[in-house]
């Protein structure tokens, strides 16, 4: 098995745990992105988003000036995204994994049983049976030679039985910029949604500063998913369990 041939995670049983005395926080792993550079690779684990909170306070648990909080772990580093209702310098922070809650304990559990849904009938059957479905999207930049596999549990799956067509729409995922080598590599990541309905291309829409037109010319900028684009890709769909 090569570094781009990945056994899917069982996302119902994959977490990142900590043992800090002030907060032994556990995060659910929501997607995995493997970046491959020749014989080397690094896995980035994107965790589920939460809201900013006054942890363990006796009351008023959510901060008034609230923001979404989403961490991604990879190697010795993590990147934290904080999305306020406006643009702020705190949107993105890269730090050592030790900085926040100490050494993380990775509870990544590969699926013990899975099936490659290589044709329509297999996909439709797995959908009707209510099986968890995971997607894997392989992308490559020919200029740098960098590759990545973006894996996530499929949250929305559109099906049209008469035409035997489908469309996946899932996010957020950790989308890597493969056009250059970043130092540290985790600095290449942005939050994105992914959609595809074939085996050889994928569409992405990335969270970024986006202009919102207001009345009377009073425009503002917020973080929003905008400017969609398409990439050549190799897509796989896999069902988990029986």
Give the helix/strand layout:
Layout: E1 15-17, E2 26-37, E3 40-47, E4 50-51, E5 68-74, E6 77-83, E7 92-96, H1 98-101, E8 105-107, E9 114-116, H2 120-128, E10 133-140, E11 147-153, E12 156-160, E13 165-176, E14 189-196, E15 201-212, E16 220-232, E17 234-240
Antiparallel strand pairs: 1-2, 1-8, 2-3, 2-11, 3-5, 4-5, 5-6, 6-7, 9-17, 10-11, 10-17, 12-13, 13-14, 14-15, 15-16
Provide a compact summary of the structure.
With 242 residues, the chain is mostly beta strands. The protein folds into two domains: 11-107, no CATH class; 114-240, no CATH class. It has helices at 98-101, 120-128; strands spanning 15-17, 26-37, 40-47, 50-51, 68-74, 77-83, 92-96, 105-107, 114-116, 133-140, 147-153, 156-160, 165-176, 189-196, 201-212, 220-232, 234-240.
Number of domains: 2
Provide the β-strand percentage band.
over 45%
In total, the number of strands is: 17
- Tally of separate helices: 2
Give the terminus-to-terminus CA distance: 23 Å
Let me know the average pLDDT.
95
Computed CA radius of gyration, to the nearest angstrom: 19 Å
Inertia-based shape: globular
Unreliable residue runs: none
Query: What kind of sheet is the major sheet?
Result: 12 strands, antiparallel
Going by helix content, strand content and strand pairing, the class is mainly beta
Percent range of helical residues: under 10%
Q: What series of H and E elements makes up the topology?
A: EEEEEEEHEEHEEEEEEEE
Describe this structure in words.
The chain has helices at residues 98-101, 120-128, and strands at residues 15-17, 26-37, 40-47, 50-51, 68-74, 77-83, 92-96, 105-107, 114-116, 133-140, 147-153, 156-160, 165-176, 189-196, 201-212, 220-232, 234-240. The protein is mainly β and 242 residues long. The chain folds into 2 domains: 11-107, no CATH class; 114-240, no CATH class. Strands 1, 2, 3, 4, 5, 6, 7, 8, 9, 10, 11 and 17 form a 12-stranded antiparallel sheet that branches. The two termini are 23 Å apart.
